[in-house]
Design goal:
It is a single chain. This protein has 411 residues and is α/β, with parallel strands linked by helices. The chain has a domain at 76-313: Type I PLP-dependent aspartate aminotransferase-like (Major domain) (Aspartate Aminotransferase, domain 2, 3-Layer(aba) Sandwich). It is 37% helix and 18% strand. Strand 13 and strand 14 form a beta hairpin. The radius of gyration is 21 Å and the shape is globular. The structure holds pyridoxal-5'-phosphate.
């Protein structure tokens, strides 16, 4: 079966609801904030593949925006969600819950040893907002230092940490945050003072352009935080759960952050987020310090527990490192003579191909002409975040399509 196979696995189309009608319906009632990729209406996924409602098959090199790390609809994940759905879907946090207990124990098992406690949220931005509160509580300070080109989400708290002016400007005033250039130790050193509650970094900046964190900067950030009593917060929302070839991106730099923020891969695609933190941070908490109705929902915890078991059982973290090496070898070989390519960079199965032109038309051509899905990062980086289960053959199909759209003739 090729990626242009139009029939295999095709989802049935309801007669009255063509792809264009469904797209128009969604846009009419829920449009306005998302720039869509044409009228494509997705209906089904399996492994690294997605199908639209007309049965066209796409190779998904985005893992559904970095979340479906086990591949789409992994049988163990689907079964765990279905089983839990038939048993208990809602359980308030003022009761303990069997699956929540098992999930948090498993999560702490896969976390670095010094991160001994977790708080469960529903999304990445909510985890970031939680980190701001926890850092302020644990330090009794208010100051926040983040980096230029960062992306931490779009709630008012998370947006305050996010750098991109076009996202921030319409919503000013935001929280007061000092942004220093990524990887600039001197500027960081100058920005952290006795009022700084936290410094937040991404190990690799995802949305900002797949920009690589440097070990010297990351280690200096930790040292400066320790010296001045600020907390080091690492945003692992995109880099966590094997994306970079380690369980967590900060492990590449030998860091021991005070707090890490998690989401995306934590539930294998099920909406979920978390904060993980040290015992020192934990001691600052008290009942009512933070909370959420849906965080720790049994269905999400069943998904999270199943996902963590699959990461371990299928050894997906090592696999990400191995397949990542293959991906970069193939990208470097196939794109060596492409004049539009400025640089190929990344870690594990997180890849950025920086172009000398805007990336939008290339992403469209990849999807429309080759049925391959990729993401932008900034205006001129083509970003790949494939599921960790991607095969050598699927890498080959993807790289070949990318090489064709980036060829001097295009197409
Ligand atoms: C590094 C990083 N932080 C935070 C977020 C925000 O997460 P969410 O979209 O779940 O709110 C994202 C989302 O892309 C992200 O990549």
């Amino acid at each position: 079966m090729t990626n242009n196979d139009e029939t295999e696995g095709a989802a049935p189309v309801t007669a009255a609801q063509s792809m264009a009608e469904l797209a128009a319906m969604e846009e009419q009632y829920a449009g306005g904030t998302t720039a869509r990729r044409g009228d494509v209406v997705m209906a089904r996924g399996e492994g690294c593949w997605m199908w639209d409602v007309e049965g066209r098959r796409y190779l998904d090199l985005t893992a559904g925006q970095g979340v479906a790390m086990l591949g789409h609809s992994h049988p163990a994940l689907s079964a765990a969600i279905a089983e839990q759905a038939s048993r208990l879907i809602a359980c308030p946090n003022f009761f303990y819950n069997d699956v929540r207990a098992r999930f948090v124990a498993k999560l702490v098992e896969v976390l670095p040893d010094h991160l001994s406690h977790v708080f469960l949220s529903n999304s990445g931005a909510e985890a970031i907002d939680g980190a701001i509160k926890y850092a302020r509580l644990a330090t009794g300070r208010t100051g926040i230092v983040a980096t230029m080109r960062s992306f931490h989400g779009r709630t008012i708290g998370a947006l305050s940490l996010t750098w991109e002016p076009k996202y921030r400007k319409p919503f000013a005033p935001l929280l007061d945050v000092t942004h220093v250039p990524y990887n600039n130790v001197e500027r960081l050193d100058a920005a952290v003072d006795e009022n700084t509650a936290m410094v937040i970094v991404e190990p690799v900046q995802g949305e900002g352009g797949v920009n690589m964190g440097e070990a010297a900067f990351m280690q200096a950030a930790q040292r400066i935080c320790r010296e001045r009593g600020a907390l080091l917060v690492v945003d692992e929302i995109q880099t966590g759960f094997g994306r970079t070839g380690h369980w967590f991106g900060h492990e590449h730099f030998g860091l021991q952050p005070d707090i890490i923020c998690l989401a995306k891969g934590i539930g294998g695609g099920f909406p979920m987020g978390a904060l993980a933190y040290t015992n020192r941070v934990h001691t600052a908490l008290y009942p009512g310090a933070h909370g959420t109705t849906f965080g720790g929902n049994p269905l999400a915890c069943a998904a999270g527990l199943a996902a963590l078991e699959v990461y371990q059982r299928e050894e997906l973290i090592d696999r990400a490192a191995e397949m990542g090496q293959m991906l970069f070898d193939r990208l470097n070989a196939a794109l060596a003579n492409r004049t539009v390519v400025r640089e190929i960079r990344g870690l594990g199965l997180m890849a950025g191909i920086e172009l000398r032109e805007r990336v939008g038309p290339y992403l469209r051509a990849l999807m429309e002409e080759h049925a391959v899905l990729a993401l932008p990062a900034g205006s001129n980086v083509l970003r790949l975040l494939p599921p960790l289960v991607i095969s050598a053959e699927e890498i080959e199909i993807g790289v070949e399509a990318i090489a064709r759209v980036l060829s001097d003739e295009g197409g």
